[in-house]
From TrEMBL:
Keywords: NADP, Oxidoreductase. Gene3D superfamilies: Medium-chain alcohol dehydrogenases, catalytic domain (3.90.180.10), NAD(P)-binding Rossmann-like Domain (3.40.50.720). It comes from Roseicyclus marinus. This is NAD(P)H quinone oxidoreductase. SMART domains: PKS_ER. SUPFAM superfamilies: GroES-like, NAD(P)-binding Rossmann-fold domains. Transmembrane segments: none annotated. One of its GO terms (molecular function) is NADPH binding. PANTHER family: OS02G0805600 PROTEIN, QUINONE OXIDOREDUCTASE PIG3-RELATED. Coiled coil: none annotated.
Length: 326
C-alpha cells in the first residue's frame, strides 16, 4: 500500500479554479470502515457547495470533495465483516472521493450491479440514496400518482424519472431546452415541460395537480410549487439553487392540507445511511441489474480536471451524471 496519493483539494472558497491537484497521505480505515482504491468518482452539486464554502464536511470526514465513488476494496478496518480486499464496490462517501483512495463505512458500500462499468457505478450512490429517501420514503410516492420533478435532465432528475416510472407513477418534469425535454421523455416522463416556454403550474393544474413534487430550485419555485400541488399533495425540498428564503402564503398549505418537507443526505447518521443502502439493494439494485433503469452519463473528466467537471456541472449544459476518472 502506498503512503501517499493523488487528490484534488479546495485551496480556498471560490469557483472551479480553486480545485487543485495535491498529494495527501493515504487514509487508514478505522473500525467498521473500508478503504476503496477509487477508479471513478461522481461529481455532484454538494461538491460545488463545499467548494464555495457553503457545505462543510461533517466532523471526522475528509476535507477533500467527493461524495460517491466506485473501485476496489484496498484495505479493511477492524470489525469489517461485509467486504474483503479485492471486492468491487460503489459507495456513498462522507467526503474524500476526489482522490486515489477514500474511506467509507462498510454498510454504505454496495456491490456493483451486473452489467455496469466502473464509471456508471460511480454515478449511482449519491443520486440513488437521495432519490430513494426523498421520493419514496419521505415523499411516499405510490403507483398511479402524479409526480413532478424539477431539473429532469440533472443526475437527480434522470434518476427520479426512471425510478418513479418503474414504480408505476405518472411522471412530469421540467427542463430548459427541447433536447433536454426529449431526453427526459425518453427516460419515462409522460410530459417534459420546457420552463423557458411554458408554465409548469398551469400544466400541472390541468392534470389535477401533482401529488408529489421533488424540487432543488427553491426561491420563486416554492410558492409556484404550492399552487401546482393537488390537495393533500407533498413537496420535498432537497436544494435551493435560487436561495432558501421566500415569502409564502401558508393559508393554502392549511386549507389544502399540503405537506412541505425536505432533507439533506450528508449529515444523516451512519445507521440511517445503512438503512437506505439496504433498501436500495433490495428494491433498486435488481432494476439496475436487469437493465430496466440505468445511470444517464454525461461526460468523464480526468481527476486532474475536476475544475472542468465543476464548470460543466454549473453551466447546466449536461444531461445526466458527470464523473472523474482517477
Amino acid at each position: 500500500m502506498p503512503q501517499t496519493m493523488r487528490a484534488i483539494e479546495i485551496t480556498a472558497p471560490g469557483g472551479p479554479e480553486v480545485l487543485q491537484p495535491c498529494t495527501r497521505p493515504v487514509p487508514v480505515p478505522g473500525s467498521g470502515q473500508i478503504l476503496i482504491a477509487v477508479d471513478h468518482a461522481g461529481v455532484n452539486r454538494p461538491d460545488a457547495l463545499q467548494r464555495a464554502g457553503n457545505y462543510a464536511p461533517p466532523p471526522g470526514a475528509s476535507d477533500l470533495p467527493g461524495l460517491e465513488a466506485a473501485g476496489v476494496v484496498a484495505a479493511i478496518g477492524p470489525d469489517v465483516t461485509r467486504w474483503k480486499v479485492g471486492d468491487a464496490v460503489c459507495a456513498l462517501l462522507p467526503g474524500g472521493g476526489y482522490a486515489q483512495y477514500a474511506l467509507t463505512h462498510q454498510d454504505h458500500a454496495l456491490p456493483i450491479p451486473d452489467g455496469l462499468s466502473m464509471a456508471e457505478a460511480a454515478a449511482l450512490c449519491e443520486t440513488f440514496y437521495t432519490v430513494w429517501t426523498n421520493v419514496f420514503l419521505r415523499g411516499r410516492l405510490k403507483a398511479g400518482e402524479r409526480f413532478l420533478v424539477h431539473g429532469g435532465s440533472s443526475g437527480i432528475g434522470t434518476t427520479a424519472i426512471q425510478l418513479a416510472h418503474a414504480m408505476g407513477a405518472r411522471v412530469f418534469t421540467t427542463a430548459g431546452s427541447a433536447d433536454k425535454c426529449a431526453a427526459c421523455e425518453a427516460l419515462g416522463a409522460e410530459r417534459a415541460i420546457n420552463y423557458r416556454e411554458a408554465d409548469f403550474v398551469e400544466l400541472m393544474q390541468a392534470e389535477g395537480g401533482a401529488n408529489l413534487i421533488l424540487d432543488m430550485v427553491g426561491g420563486s419555485y416554492l410558492p409556484r410549487n404550492v399552487r401546482a400541488l393537488a390537495d393533500d399533495g407533498r413537496l420535498v425540498q432537497i436544494a435551493f439553487l435560487e436561495g432558501p428564503k421566500v415569502e409564502l402564503n401558508f393559508a393554502q398549505v392549511m386549507m389544502r392540507r399540503l405537506t412541505i418537507t425536505g432533507s439533506t443526505l450528508r449529515p444523516q447518521s451512519d445507521a440511517a445511511k445503512a438503512d437506505i443502502a439496504a433498501d436500495l439493494l433490495a428494491h433498486v439494485w435488481p432494476l439496475l441489474a436487469s437493465g430496466r433503469i440505468k445511470p444517464v452519463m454525461d461526460r468523464v473528466f480526468p481527476l486532474e480536471d475536476a475544475a472542468g467537471a465543476h464548470a460543466r456541472m454549473e453551466s447546466s449544459a449536461h444531461i445526466g451524471k458527470i464523473v472523474l476518472k482517477v
